[in-house]
Amino acid sequence: MKPEMTPEELEQFIHRELRALPARKAPPGFEQRLQAAVEARLAGRTATPEQLEQFVHRALRALPPRRAPHSLESRVLAAIEHQAAVAWYHKSWAYWPAAVKAAFLAVGTGVSGAAITAFYLFSQGADPGVLTDAAGERFAGAAALIHVFRWMASYTSESFASIPPLWLYGGLAFIAAMYAAFFGLGAAAYRTLYRNN
Amino acid sequence: MRNYQDMVYSTAVRLIGNETQAEDIAQEVFIKAHEHFDNLRTSPSAGGWLKTVATNLSLNHISRYKKRWSFFSDLVHRDEEGGEKEVEFAAPDTFFAGVDSSERREWIERALEKLPDHQRVPLVLYHFEDMPYEDIAKKTRVSLSKVKTDILRGREALAKILVRSGASHESFEN
């Protein structure tokens, strides 16, 4: 080593001396200890499906029941009170009184039977005027109702007859196209704005 | 009602993963219970009845919601279907023995809520309701292999969330 050295020469000298050092020998037993440590780490880091199941099962089963919100009890009581206050005819079929259910079934069966019979007679070529007159004679009280039905039927058929078929089918096609377009737009908007977030 | 409301609410909230919707389901359960009050009042299995109704209503709610949005979102994750794979999951190196138990419970509940429906529902049915895989497949109307895969994936995801949040203070070897 020269007595006067520039910083660059000193750096090169130290670098050469350090790089010339031989590798130090590991202490006895180092290799075995290293191997054991690696194996222990690997064994501890990978869980079998059974271990994972047991771990998750223990974690979940240790959970106590979640506390219901304070509002739940008052909400249930209010809903029950509200339900009790609603008239039967505003509720679903299951809540109707038995007598009303029976009457509804009887009337429904009668109307259905009459409709099926009328359809059968018309299909056999019976005159609608004769049939409605016969029905009107038989059910004198319902004559006004039959008159209303007859007027509604004739008005609807005349209205449809006055629309050109092209306009009718065009209108239906337009409605179908708009429905499909809005459905597609809704799906695209959902995928873009909501799902991606 | 006070005796059972926590149990009913827990069942619903763990299955649905949404507190507001779970409260609605719990309300529906107790209204149904009120309609069957005469039978339930003296029944020793009232708790079981309530739990079953809560489970069924929650599953109906989930399937209704899924049907409504199935057109809009791809709920089937094709990459997650298929046979069982080896679990590659890193066990925690350090355990948080000092974590408060109530805090730890809160973490687990939140981790459960974070799971997607198709993993959380079978996982909850298996671990909380002790339902076998076959019954879960029937209830959720998916194949047996999909149920097994979803539960396995759910466990992995749950364990990862727990470890990440430091909630776990036990090792797999225990």
Q: How would you describe the overall organization of this protein?
A:
The complex is a heterodimer of chains A (197) and B (174). Chain A has helices spanning 7-19, 30-45, 49-61, 71-85, 98-123, 128-138, 143-162, 165-195. Chain A is mainly α and 197 residues long. Chain A has a domain at 164-197. The two termini of chain A are 68 Å apart. The model of chain A has no long low-confidence stretch (mean pLDDT 80). Chain B folds into 2 domains: 5-69, Orthogonal Bundle (Rna Polymerase Sigma Factor, Chain: A), CATH 1.10.1740; 84-165, Arc Repressor Mutant, subunit A. Chain B has 174 residues and is an all-alpha fold. The model of chain B is unreliable at 72-97 and 167-174 (pLDDT under 50). In chain B, helix 7 packs across helix 8 (144-165).
What is the CATH third-level topology name of the largest domain in chain B?
Arc Repressor Mutant, subunit A
Assembly type: heterodimer
Q: What is the approximate shape of chain A?
A: elongated
Q: Estimate nothing, just give the exact number of structural domains of chain B.
A: 2
Instruction: Calculate Rg of chain A over CA atoms.
Output: 45 Å
Percent of residues of chain A in beta strands? under 5%
Order of helices and strands of chain B: HHHHHHHH
Helical proportion of chain A?
over 70%
Question: From the coordinates shown, what is the CATH architecture of the largest domain in chain B?
Answer: Orthogonal Bundle
The CATH homologous superfamily of the largest domain in chain B is called Winged helix-like DNA-binding domain superfamily/Winged helix DNA-binding domain
**Overall pLDDT of chain B, averaged?**
76
- Arithmetic mean of pLDDT of chain A: 80
C-alpha-based Rg of chain B, rounded: 18 Å
